[in-house]
């Protein structure tokens, strides 16, 4: 069942609950063995031609390439799309200089994140763990 935190009024405008067509998982919680997690991860999305198998220790595939879900590649794809949208809209808005700056400028994302953090605290689920700030300070040239 979905988490009750998703039904909080301040979050409802930010959240859409999707139910996948295929539900594969562990139906018996007792059979889950978190200490025996596999050393690989598999991902796929509509439009992908194949599954991507990633080594969970390195974040790379068997050819040494980073995952298509890594921050760098997703940001690169976002910048290309953003550039196309700017061209179509003939906008004069400037370019973003870093991943961090781009993320900070995403107002709806920031609003949703703040609402989620507040709901975690109100629900007694603890504090949001912040990652090292350097992790998001990278730029791309596309």
TrEMBL record:
GO cellular component, one term: cytoplasm
Location of the A to I editase domain: 26-138
BP GO terms, sorted: adenosine to inosine editing; RNA processing
InterPro entries tied to this protein: A_deamin (IPR002466)
UniProt-recorded Gene Ontology molecular function terms: double-stranded RNA adenosine deaminase activity; double-stranded RNA binding; tRNA-specific adenosine deaminase activity
Record-linked Pfam families: A_deamin
Domain of life: Eukaryota
Protein name: Adenosine deaminase RNA specific B1b
Organism this protein belongs to: Callorhinchus milii
């Amino acid at each position: 069942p979905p988490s009750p935190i998703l039904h909080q009024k301040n979050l409802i405008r930010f959240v859409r609950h999707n139910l996948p067509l295929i539900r594969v998982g562990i139906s018996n919680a007792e059979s889950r063995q978190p200490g025996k997690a596999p050393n690989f991860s598999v991902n796929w999305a509509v439009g992908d031609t194949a599954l991507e198998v990633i080594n969970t220790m390195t974040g790379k595939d068997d050819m040494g390439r980073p995952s298509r879900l890594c921050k760098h590649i997703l940001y690169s794809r976002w910048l290309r799309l953003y550039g196309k949208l700017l061209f179509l809209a003939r906008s004069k808005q400037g370019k973003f200089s870093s991943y961090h700056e781009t993320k900070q400028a995403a107002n709806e994302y920031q609003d949703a994140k703040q609402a989620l953090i507040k709901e975690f605290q109100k629900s007694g689920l603890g504090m949001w763990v912040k990652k090292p700030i350097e992790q998001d300070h990278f730029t791309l040239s596309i």
